[in-house]
Specification:
Elements: H1 2-12, E1 37-40, H2 46-56, E2 60-65, H3 86-91, E3 95-99, H4 105-115, E4 120-123, H5 129-132, H6 137-140, E5 148-153, H7 168-174, H8 202-227, E6 234-239, H9 240-245, H10 251-258, E7 275-280, E8 291-296, H11 300-309, H12 323-328, H13 330-341, H14 346-356, E9 360-362, H15 366-369, H16 373-377, E10 381-388, E11 391-398, H17 422-429, H18 434-442
Helix pairs in contact: 1-8, 2-8
Length: about 450
């Protein structure tokens, strides 16, 4: 119901008569966000990840990039034969690339005109940058009163830290997330070495998820206002630090009520036993390197199954019946499991525990993931064509999730070449003629 009304609102409600095709896109797909136009001014990960999610579920996403260089992500990490990162091809999928120089007055005016015809402006610049360019909410809402402004930054749009640059690694640390991750020094219960970072920019992606969620909530709120005859825009203020704090479970209330400061816990998780990574014999596929298996048997019934499977029923009964009992005897339980797994291959452990009904998983690399039977069965990795004048190639990328039953959300194209849609948008959406487009390009305003 909500998605239908959003779609209707996107095509029917107009702030003024000049917006006769306001918010309409060229897509005829019956998707939850069909008809919603998103003007993506963000770059790298946090904002663009939000844009990727919205675009997958039907929104028309127009990505503004600086001419000549584009989004920095285009040249991050591994580069393909054309010099563009496959990562960008994934994160930029289903978006239109429009090259506009925001440093130029005419470039900013073009963006202003696009914002007047959009439902959402999505950005992840440092707070104050868009205001400096005359593209902030107070500049754009007079042109489009129902515009939603989704803003992703390190620490939010207000407060004493608002103007600080927001990098995921730093915000993860400031949120407390890095403090609870790492190996434990048994003498101090603190860190044995530096805190451990997951080998992805987790804070950026988590903030992108919050931004997408907040954008959809704002669209729903706007629809409700429209049903009351009101034109209401809204700012969605997403902080990377606060997004990470949203993942911190009971850490703050436990500190408040019990004075407990949760620290690192290695490969386990504090207060839940047993759930850990356990060593196994090297496998032929790992060339003699150590292998590990993940066992999650922290449910009472699951724990009893695990102990039966490893021949340690002596570690069952009233003294081990519930989680708080097992937490008090964690060292003993972990030692028993480790002794059992250490004499077996990960494959053998997996088969034995799977047969016993105990949750178990191998620690897989991307090499195994793309061949995984469950991944294949659900088409969780897809091949997406990168079109070039002389041909092209497929790039494997994870599908965008979740899967909505009855919705044909899919990847239509890979992240496009820089400026691939500039002419289309200038002519079809802004009504510029060919001569004007040529002039703007010659003046370096567009690319």
């Amino acid at each position: 119901m909500a998605s239908t009304t959003l779609r209707l609102y996107a095509t029917k409600v107009t702030p003024n008569a000049s917006h006769s095709r306001l918010f309409s896109s060229h897509s005829a797909d019956d998707l939850p966000l069909s008809g919603i136009r998103v003007l993506e001014l963000g770059q790298v990960i946090a904002g663009p990840f939000c844009g990727q999610l919205l675009g997958h579920f039907g929104a028309e996403v127009i990505k503004i990039e600086p001419p000549s260089v584009g989004d920095p992500l285009r040249v991050w990490r591994e580069l393909d034969v054309d010099g563009v990162s496959p990562w960008f091809r994934s994160l930029g999928r289903n978006k239109k690339s429009v090259a506009i120089d925001l440093r130029k007055d005419e470039g900013r005016e073009l963006v202003k005109r696009l914002a007047a015809k959009s439902d959402v402006v999505l950005e992840n610049f440092k707070p104050g940058i868009l205001e400096k360019w005359g593209l902030g909410p107070s500049d754009l809402h007079p042109l489009n009163p129902s515009l939603i402004f989704t803003r992703v930054s390190g620490y939010g749009q207000t407060g004493p830290w608002a103007s600080r640059p927001g990098y995921a690694s730093v915000c993860e640390a400031e949120s407390g997330f890095r403090y609870i991750n790492g190996n434990v020094d048994p003498k101090t219960d603190g860190h044995a070495g530096p805190p451990v970072r997951p080998n992805i920019s987790l804070g950026d992606s988590v903030a992108g998820l919050h931004a997408a969620f907040g954008t959809v909530l704002a669209l729903m709120s706007r629809q409700r206002s429209a049903s009351q005859g009101k034109q209401k825009g809204q700012t969605v203020d997403v902080s990377i630090m606060e997004s990470m704090m949203n993942l911190m479970e009971g850490i703050i209330p436990e500190y408040d009520r019990k004075g407990k400061v949760r620290g690192p816990s290695g490969s386990s998780v504090t207060g839940i036993v047993p759930t850990n990574a356990y060593p196994c014999l090297p496998s032929p596929s790992t060339a003699g390197l150590p292998t590990y298996i993940i066992i999650g048997a922290n449910g009472d019934t699951l724990y009893a199954r695990l102990m039966r499977a490893i021949g340690r029923e002596d570690l069952t009964g009233p003294l081990y019946a519930h989680n708080h009992h097992r937490v008090a005897r964690q060292a003993e339980i972990e030692a028993a499991i480790t002794e059992w797994t250490s004499s077996r291959s990960a494959e053998d452990v997996y088969k034995l525990l799977e047969a016993a009904g105990v949750p178990v998983g191998r620690v897989l690399s991307v090499r195994e993931i793309v061949k995984h039977e469950q991944v294949k069965a659900r088409d969780a990795v897809e091949d997406v064509w990168v079109q070039k004048e002389d041909g092209g190639w497929n790039v494997k990328m994870p599908r965008v999730f979740p899967i909505l039953q009855g919705s044909d959300a899919k990847t239509k194209w890979a992240g496009p070449d820089l400026g691939a849609h500039t002419d289309e948008v200038m002519k079809e959406d802004l009504g510029l003629d060919s001569d004007e487009v040529v002039r703007l390009r010659q003046d370096g305003v567009i690319g």
